[in-house]
Amino acid sequence: MTTMKSVAEALEHMHSAVGSLTGGETIAIEDSLDRVLAEPVSSTMDVPAYDNSAMDGYAFKAEDVSSGTSLKLVGTALAGHPYTGDCPPGCCIRIMTGAQVPAVTDTVIAQEDTEANGDMITIHAELKVGSNIRRQGEEIRQGEAIYTAGHCITPVDIGLLASLGRADINVRQRLRVALFSTGDELVQPGQTLSTGQLYDSNRYVLKAMLQRLGCEVIDLGLIADDKDAIREAFESSSQQADAIICSGGVSVGDADYTKQILDSYGSVGFWKVAMKPGKPFAFGKVNDAWFFGLPGNPVSAVVTFDQLALPIIQKMRGIQDYDRIALRLQAGTAFKKRPGRADFQRALIQPYGDQSRVFSTGPQGSAMLTSLAEGNCYVQLDAEQGSVQEGEWVTVIPFTSPLR
Ligand code: AMP
Ligand code: MG
């Protein structure tokens, strides 16, 4: 039985079925890119840890100092080499950016607002007491919450963790995803094509996207349209992986055996999702692994993966609040559409005068991978609506990693 679902219904069904992995491990922060935090992180220190100079210049006590005053240079504070001596009235200390502001001073003046004559420094600017000092704790207070568990770690996060002195971090275990392609017409790149054959491209896009998601990909390659081979692929992948993704063979009336074999596991639903590209999509359990069956057409495979499987994979990885940015832009070209299914047309945000508009990437055939390769966003059109004319406002979803 094939069930018809809207995109929202399909996502809701999968979200209510699938939970997050619970296992975790402690790893070095430099290995944590794209991993998901398994612990909340709060700061064990003030950042900055001490008052420091925002400028190369001179530090002094502002009392009795004004524009035109000359101060005697009595010491130097360098980054990493604090000045611990005295700074009597009428004196100043040379200070460099990042150096701790000596406790005996309260103000820093930038070098360009002074004039040096031997060891006499003349002030050439109006003074503001406390100026040019980055205050202890002004960015982060000790004990302040920085991240909640479930946050996906970016390069900047690694830097921020480093700035807090964290050397290692608790993250969720990597999601293991088994991946294969089915279809007797498919040939591995590098081999010669015979008539009626085409190269397997889905596995290559999907593998790269999964790698960008920080998943451990178990690549089972190309599985022939053979009952035993397909059953064996499902058995071995369900033993090794948390999730299984295959493309091809999930549409109704397909000549291959994928559907027959999946039926024997009893819990896989074959859906028609009202989206374009896409439509056929299968979801359920194969032994203990969650299974996502994607349509074979290359654009359909990538877009159903991106729109339907990805949010669930993010949840399995431990990300609770996965969401995408949606923009509203005017169409730079017309977008043809028939009412019925939600469209994810491939498009390009480009400059238009001193603004931006969104332009179609051209022919939108579900086998045309170039429509995705040339795009940097989707134009998302509601199921019920028809064509869009140039100049109309549309919803635009920029491609994000791992798609881009
Ligand atoms: P299917 O969903 O198996 O009916 O396949 C639909 C279309 O996608 C057919 O034209 C297939 O040849 C093509 N196709 C299926 N799998 C792949 C793949 N891995 N790479 C490229 N094209 C594919
Ligand atoms: Mg097929």
Strand order of the largest sheet: 1-19-21-22-18-14-17
- Could you please say which CATH topology of the largest domain applies here? Molybdenum Cofactor Biosythetic Enzyme, Chain A
Which small-molecule ligands are present, each listed once? adenosine monophosphate, magnesium ion
Overall shape: elongated
**Fourth-level CATH superfamily of the largest domain:** MoaB/Mog-like domain
CATH class of the largest domain: Alpha Beta
Q: Termini distance?
A: 36 Å
Number of helices: 7
Number of strands: 27
Question: What is the residue-averaged pLDDT?
Answer: 94
Number of domains: 4
Proportion in helices: 10-25%
β content, as a range? 25-35%
Biggest beta sheet summary: 7 strands, mixed
CATH architecture of the largest domain: 3-Layer(aba) Sandwich
Estimated structural class? alpha/beta
Rg (CA only): 30 Å
Secondary structure topology:
Layout: E1 2-5, H1 7-17, E2 24-28, E3 41-42, E4 52-53, E5 57-60, E6 70-77, E7 91-95, E8 107-110, E9 114-117, E10 120-123, E11 133-134, E12 145-147, H2 155-163, E13 168-172, E14 176-182, E15 186-187, E16 198-199, H3 202-212, E17 216-223, H4 227-240, E18 243-247, H5 258-263, E19 269-273, E20 275-276, E21 280-286, E22 289-294, H6 298-317, E23 327-331, E24 342-352, E25 355-360, H7 370-373, E26 377-381, E27 393-398
Parallel strand pairs: 1-19, 6-7, 14-17, 14-18, 15-16, 18-22, 20-24, 23-25
Antiparallel strand pairs: 2-13, 3-12, 4-11, 5-7, 5-8, 6-10, 9-10, 19-21, 21-22, 23-27, 24-25, 24-26, 26-27
Helix pairs in contact: 1-6
Bound molecules: adenosine monophosphate and magnesium ion.
